[in-house]
Amino acid sequence: MADRDRTDADSDIEFDFFDEPPTIERSPVEPAPRPREGGGGGGTPPIRPRSPGAPTPLVRLALLIGGAIVLAVVLVFWVNSCRGGQKKGSYEDYMQAAAAVVRESDSIGTQLGELLTTPGVTLDDLGTGLAGLAKQQAQVVARAGELTPPGPLVSEQESLVEAMQLRQSGLAGLERAFAQLQPATEPETAGTTLAEQAFRIVAGNVVYDDLFKGRSEQVMKQEEISGVAVPASTFLESPELLSQNSLAELVKRTQGGGGGGTDGGLHGNQIEGVLVQPDGQALSPDQETTIIASDQLAFEAQVKNSGDFQETKVKVTLTITSPEPIKRQATIDLINAGETKSVTFRDFSNIDFSRPYTLKVAVKPVEGEQNTDNNTAEYPVIFSLE
């Protein structure tokens, strides 16, 4: 009985053991899909249809890449534009600074012209005046040397300084040469000596025009710089003042030919004739001349120095008689003995075509002039539209 009970117990234990379901390894439980609003149950959500015309992801990517390229191109152009503006600005700043230097130098040249054509000027006057002008030009040289050019214009900047130096050297050389002259120095010999010094000024003008202005314009064209002007320079309105003949006449004038007619020579000018421009028609003092009026109408008066000395600041006047006379005036800075020079009168827009006129040209007598009969000439004229 006891054995059976034990057997039954054992059987129960074995039964319970084998009746237990075997252990199964599971992977972690994944959360169930979240149900969509308004719907029931899980599962894969339905695919929504793409609206017509909507770009695919590939198209959107292409659009983004294209936009980035366009933006990059715009940025490159903007950067290059800024750089180009800065580059042009450096040329503009330099040329403006150079123009200030040139204006100051040209002003000195104007003073030189006034000095050389001053009536009654003496050797002492010339020496003192030239010394002062040379000092002024030396200051211009210093200012020119302080300019900072763009890189491509370094050589041209050196030429600018050289041109200013040549002008200064010429002025100083003329001052020394005049200081060495004696009252009895032969004018022709003196003129040759003075012209050798004056040549430095002429050379300075050539260096400026060719090596600074001309080459600067070429460089800016190569650098694609537009709209920046290189300043022009006119150191002397009448370069002939520095010729050997004019300087010899100047010396002669300082040796007693300044006027008064007591120096053994004659002073005087005369009217040689009048031409109508632009056709070159000569007016006649004896018969009426028909003049075709136009906006280009001008009268060219020819004046001859009929004396023995150089004359300066010669005043010439043209008058057309009418109820309200039309009057024009011009000045010949310098005219050497035996030389003929022309002055041109313009702007005759208020001419009355219904009546004849008398055109009168007169040259003002110079100091020491005794014969003034040929200083005036009159011409009968009539104006026509055709």
Helix-strand string: HHHHHHEEEEEEEEE
Report the helical percentage: 40-55%
Major sheet? 5 strands, mixed
The end-to-end distance, rounded to whole angstroms, is: 167 Å
Mean pLDDT reading: 85
- The count of β-strands is 9
Radius of gyration over all CA atoms, rounded: 49 Å
Q: Report strand order across the widest sheet.
A: 3-9-8-5-6
**Count of the separate structural domains:** 2
Strand content: 15-25%
Notable traits:
single chain; 386 residues; Immunoglobulin-like; five-stranded mixed β-sheet; 6 helices; 9 strands; 45% helix; 17% strand; flat; disordered N terminus
Description of the molecule:
It is built from six helices and nine strands; from the N terminus they run ααααααβββββββββ. The protein has two domains: 77-254; 269-384, Immunoglobulins (Immunoglobulin-like), CATH 2.60.40. By secondary structure, it is an alpha+beta fold. The radius of gyration is 49 Å and the shape is flat. It has a five-stranded mixed sheet with strand order 3-9-8-5-6, with no helix packed on it. Strands 2-1-4-7 form a four-stranded antiparallel sheet, with no helix packed on it.
Summed up, what is this model?
With 386 residues, this protein is an alpha+beta fold. Helix content is 45%, strand content 17%.
List the helices and strands and how they pair.
Layout (H helix, E strand, L loop, with lengths): L1 H18 L37 H60 L6 H23 L8 H26 L7 H36 L21 H11 L14 E9 L3 E2 L6 E4 L5 E8 L5 E10 L5 E10 L4 E6 L11 E7 L12 E9 L2
Parallel strand pairs: 3-9
Antiparallel strand pairs: 1-2, 1-4, 4-7, 5-6, 5-8, 8-9
Helix pairs in contact: 2-3, 3-4, 4-5, 5-6
